[in-house]
Amino acid sequence: MSSPLAIREIHARGFARAWQIFRAVVAAGDTYSYPPDIDESQARAMWTTPPSRCFVAERDGEALGIYMLRPNQPGLGDHVANCGYMVSPHARGQGIASAMCEHSLALARRAGFTAMQYNFVVSSNEGAVRLWQKHGFAIVGRVPGAFRHARLGPTDVFVMHRAL
Amino acid sequence: MSSPLAIREIHARGFARAWQIFRAVVAAGDTYSYPPDIDESQARAMWTTPPSRCFVAERDGEALGIYMLRPNQPGLGDHVANCGYMVSPHARGQGIASAMCEHSLALARRAGFTAMQYNFVVSSNEGAVRLWQKHGFAIVGRVPGAFRHARLGPTDVFVMHRAL
């Protein structure tokens, strides 16, 4: 039997544990618009500088997934949360994205957010789209060709949303 | 006869000329999600720190409108431009937003962007929605209640897009 998955918050000083996953996911160029050659300090700043908060999902001390939670807008839009999730290429198909999504929804609700919005879900990432739909998200927008997919070229991007 | 409108780029040091317009538009709480009590240094940083570029539309030396152009995403999404436009409350109905939109579209095209996206067009701002449609933008998304309008309360937000 595998140990349970633990999800806990990390801060800038602990970002090294997240960086290997961040780098691997972004380097693939198939799900995130971050520059594929982004460096650790840039990634750390974006994911750990308040109001962004960063979390690691781990099992037996090994980091298997990371996610970031923040207000999607400042000021008069800061009641809507935004998240980004990344799973280690070695840990796919274990329900880690799903567990992080559930964790983030509960956390966002407790923090007072009344909705969550994903701005940039790459349409070719069909597994993710289905997973977010299973977790209550609806596609509320589709932006043509907004992502230059490393293999597929210009690819549409979905805006997804759910109330909390 | 009124003098022609001139549109020129400004940088951080020249932002004071833009600030009066920025402050007045944001304080109204009906079109932008920036905190209504945002201060000049925060506004200046957001609108003039590269890759953001800031422009002033002026007539007879008086600033009547301002706009900001930037990539909407980093990395693999940086072929899509994003803009925000603000017109002085004293200069509405003179075609200034339209002139700035035309200017920004031409500039974005020259800079190599292949599309432009507005992420946060407040749906109650019907004049703006119609104006962007007239300039070739389509509504590609609608996010429910994403803006806390100062008078109307929770208000839907449009994502608008056009190819360049």
Q: Superfamily at the CATH H level of the domain at 6-116 in chain A?
A: Gcn5-related N-acetyltransferase (GNAT)
Examine the coordinates and then state which fold CATH places here, giving the name of the CATH topology of the domain at 6-116 in chain A. Answer: Aminopeptidase
Q: Write the CATH architecture name of the domain at 6-116 in chain A.
A: 3-Layer(aba) Sandwich
Number of strands of chain A: 7
Could you describe the largest sheet of chain A, including whether it forms a barrel?
7 strands, mixed
List keywords for this structure.
164 residues, 4 helices, 27% helix, alpha+beta, 7 strands, homodimer, Aminopeptidase
List the helices and strands and how they pair.
2 copies of one chain form a homodimer.
Chain A: E1 6-10, H1 16-27, H2 40-48, E2 53-59, E3 62-71, E4 80-87, H3 96-110, E5 115-122, H4 126-134, E6 138-149, E7 153-163
Parallel strand pairs in A: 4-5
Antiparallel strand pairs in A: 1-2, 2-3, 3-4, 5-7, 6-7
